[in-house]
Amino acid sequence: MKEKGRSRKPAEKSGWSKPDGRPMRKRKGEFFPDKEIEGFRKKKRSFTSDENSKPSREGADSRKKFEKSTDSKYKRRDDAPRGKKFAPRGVTRKPTSQPTGTDEAVRLNKFIANTGICSRREADELIGAGVISVNGEVVTELGTKVTSADVVRYNGEPLRSERMVYVLLNKPKDFISTTDDPDNRKTVMNLVSKACSERIYPVGRLDRNTTGLLLMTNDGDLTKKLTHPSYNIRKLYSVELDQPLTREHMKQLVEGVELEDGVSKVDDIAYEDPQMRSKIGVELHSGKNRIVRRLFEELGYQVKKLDRVVFAGLTKKDLPRGRWRMLTEMEVNQLRMMTGNKKK
User: Fold this and answer.
1) Could you tell me which CATH class the domain 166-229+317-338 is placed in?
2) Do 59 and 47 meet the contact criterion of CB atoms below 8 Å apart?
3) Which residues on adjacent β-strands are paired with residue 270?
4) Rounded Cα distance, 218 and 202, in Å
5) Burial state string for 255-267 with b = 16 or more CB within 10 A and e = fewer than 16
6) 207 tagged catalytic
7) Which CATH architecture has domain 106-159?
8) Which of 154, 117, 149 is nearest to 138 (CA)?
9) Which of 213, 228, 257, 300 could disulfide-link 311, Cβ–Cβ 3.0 to 4.6 Å?
């Protein structure tokens, strides 16, 4: 009776056998000659020593060579960084982070902009005007580099470079968007007084009765770009009017409305609720003063409530009225990407 399955070739004797005595099948290209086995056993014995056996000369030489290399090259060093068992002699590993005292030279216009008094372009104009001095000497050459050890002055006043801070505030009503008020009215600076020790400024303005997002920073270069209309920074407002807005006026706002300082228009406009046409969503990039209120007032409407809900991609999510938060590194990078190139 034939066995089921494929037929197996008879095993060729290889000199080795299984525990039950059956010969092991010889595989293709495999051999087990007695001489090779004996040679392997002799080689193995040469690297082992006990009372009855003596290591061969070849094994002893190899052992000495290995011990010599480990003593000279891979010996444990006291100055080796933690987590590393061995450090080759003569090799000094670099630290994972640079010391805090490392001083790096930066361009003078960047140093001035980092103080928050102006943008880099305006800093170049100040340098060219001869009002900037470095270590007591007036500098007019663009591209000059300075370090934190240099003393930079603007019209005799010392400038100090600060870390860049970005604070997002959900502005409430009855606060004005200035750093100081001669009439001692409440300002947005009162709301962010505990945010940081650096001196920060509002990016743009919101009226006293306007609520919503207001970015505050000491980054003068970014402030200049975010407020310039050529960068088309998106701003979205929620508007509540005293009466329903007609379709004709909505179309007119998109096409343009003649104001005292020129023609202005919105980028997009829509009803927030088709049943209540007095609540409008308005998107625009213009940075003119009180532009939203003036547009509707020109058409005969009164703005009852005005709230900025989006600014440069930033939203009011998880930010109650009157509260502030620091921007994340990702949000700051997105703002820099938005202001990287001007829009035509």
Assistant:
1) alpha beta
2) yes
3) 281
4) 9
5) eebeeeeeebebe
6) yes
7) Roll (3.10)
8) 154
9) 213
Q: Across the strands, what pairs with 215?
A: 168
Instruction: Give 10-residue mean pLDDT values along the chain (344 residues).
Output: 53 52 53 48 48 52 54 48 43 35 74 79 89 91 86 86 88 91 89 89 92 92 88 93 94 92 92 90 89 94 95 94 94 90 57
Which residue of the set 71, 124, 183, 207 is catalytic? 207
State how far the Cα of 146 lies from the Cα of 109, in Å rounded to an integer. Answer: 10
d(CA 312, CA 310): 7
State if pTM tops 0.85. no
Q: Among residues 194, 204, 215, which one has the least CA distance to residue 332?
A: 215
Query: Helix 329-338 crosses helix 220-227 at what angle (to 10 degrees)?
Result: 50
Going 34 to 40 to 44 to 46, the CA torsion angle's sign is positive
| CATH number belonging to the domain at 234-311, selected among 3.90.1150.10, 3.30.2350.10, 3.40.50.2000, 3.30.420.10 | 3.30.2350.10
Domain limits, the chain: 106-159, 166-229+317-338, 234-311
Which residue type is seen at 22? R
